[in-house]
Amino acid sequence: MKKIMLLLVAALCIMPTTAAKKSKKIDFNAEAAAVYDQMVEFRRDLHMYPELGADLPRSCGKITEILDKAGIPYIVDSQMNIIGVIEGGKPGKTLAMRADYDALPIQEETGFEYSSKIPGVMHACGHDIHAASLLGAALILKKHQAELPGKVYLCFQSAEETGGGSATMIVDYIKSQGGADGAVAFHTYGMNIPHGTYAIRSGKCLAGSIFWKMIVRGKSGHGSSPWLSIDPIKPAAEIVLRITAMQSTMFDTNEPFVVSPCMFNTSSKAGNIIPEEVTIEGSIRYFTPEHMTAVPERIGKIANDVAASYGATVEFLPGIEGSNKPTINSPEAADRATRVVKGLGKEVVEKVVEMGSDDFSEFLYAFGGIYIFTGIKMPDQPLNPHHASKFNPDERSIEDNIAVFCAYAFDHNAEN
Ligand SMILES: [Zn+2]
Ligand SMILES: [Zn+2]
After folding, report:
1. Which of 243, 250, 246 is nearest to 216 (CA)?
2. What's the confidence (pLDDT) of residue 13?
3. Residue 15 falls within a domain, yes or no?
4. 215 CA distance to ligand 2 centroid (A)?
5. How far is the CA of 404 from the centre of ligand 2 (A)?
6. Domain stops at, among 324, 348, 377
7. What pLDDT, on the 0 to 100 scale, is given for residue 249?
């Protein structure tokens, strides 16, 4: 009898909890499907009227119009970053969710019915898809605000392609509001995986980048008598060869980096004038904090030594605008993302390490988290490259991304 009573009490204690837990389970795939059409319409509109850098008045207006209608509070800063916030009805952690929304100076040649109507400007990196994914997630998280643990920041970021510190501005704003416990973002993936499949990687994901400029100065003169001048072209050419070959001789080749001089201009205006100076501009891609300082230092030393041997001088300017830190995903966030994606019935593959870079790294340095790559290959055609006039992502990834964003936010924020 006593045993039966105890069992009854135990059952009564368990039942309400189990029932309550069941009723809380939100079907994020179904929720995403419900807002998908609206988000495709939004995405196609953004795609038809792309804007550049931090000058995004129309796109910003479209996003804030939808946030206003949903009753989601936000601020817009001087760089047209939009930062919305949803305070959940339950205690929990804080997550920064980011989508960039700037386009590129490219003439679109896809032939899509919703092709860009702005000559020479195109969403050729998928940032329109990123923005639609975050906006769709915002609507669902707002709808389930009472059940949401913690807080989410909805960060629509300008000027990812051009640099200029937009990511840092958002991070600083969130820090000023008390910070975040993690960050998450999507980027359309350049490999051949379809929508509904995600590329996730723990640790090294994208490289850091340092843009640099170098001015090699000599003494101009007549092309017929170079011995009377100091020709800066010869040391500049030698510097280019030396700095692009230095990795294997001066650094551990197990830790890759790339030095790419991409512009080489002389001040000469004719084939018989030895110029006064040569300007070289390029970038470094790297992954380790040591390389962030050691590689530019070594370039500067090589340049000075080479220039001096010709009687020329060098001014080396590393770290000019557009530089990014490496994108390093935290292992816990990679595990969580994998679990969340699989929990929604979607696929996960391992992302390859790439030498490209992205300023989402600022979020990861500040708060930790994960950059997730979303499949966009259309089933019936090859995927054309990002940053090219025929870039053809499958917009159906928006629906998948919305569900993943929402499920990730609930999972992350609820964790003790
Ligand atoms: Zn891009
Ligand atoms: Zn991009």
Report:
1. 243
2. 43
3. no
4. 31
5. 19
6. 324
7. 86
Question: Rounded to the nearest whole angstrom, what is the distance from the C-alpha of residue 113 to the centroid of ligand 2?
Answer: 22
Residues 257 and 307 in one domain: yes
Q: Which residue is associated with the tokens 């964003």? A: 405
- d(CA 305, CA 312) in angstroms, rounded, equals 10
Q: Is 359 found in the same domain as 308?
A: no
What pLDDT, on the 0 to 100 scale, is given for residue 24?
63
**Residue (of 102, 89, 74) closest to 170 by Cα position:** 74
Quote the ligand 2 centre to 414 CA distance (angstroms).
Answer: 30
- Assess whether 240 and 272 both reside in one domain: yes
Q: What is the pLDDT of residues 253-307, one digit of tens each?
A: 999 999 999 999 999 999 999 999 999 999 999 999 899 999 999 999 999 999 9
> What's residue 289's pLDDT?
86
Place of tokens 């590129």: 104
Instruction: Evaluate the CA torsion angle 170, 175, 178, 182 in order and state its sign.
Output: positive
320-337: per-residue pLDDT in tens?
667 899 999 999 999 999
Residue 415 burial class via C-beta count within 10 angstroms: exposed 0-12, middle 13-18, buried 19 and up: middle
Q: Measured between alpha carbons, how far is 387 from 104 in angstroms, rounded to an integer? A: 7
What's the CA-to-centroid distance between 392 and ligand 2, angstroms?
A: 14
Q: Determine the Cα–Cα distance for residues 410 and 340; give it in Å rounded to an integer.
A: 10
Tell me, yes or no, whether 202 and 238 share the same domain: no
Residues in the chain where the model's pLDDT stays below 50 = 1-23
CA 327-331-332 angle, 5° bins: 120
Ligand 2 centroid, distance to 187 Cα (angstroms): 6
Give yes or no: residues 268 and 398 share one domain: no
Find the 161 Cα to ligand 1 centroid distance in Å.
6
The number of folded domains in the chain is 2
Q: Tell me which ligand sits closest to the C-alpha of residue 386.
A: 1
- What range does the domain containing 284 cover? 208-324
The per-residue pLDDT for 164 is: 78
d(CA 163, ligand 1 centre) in Å: 11
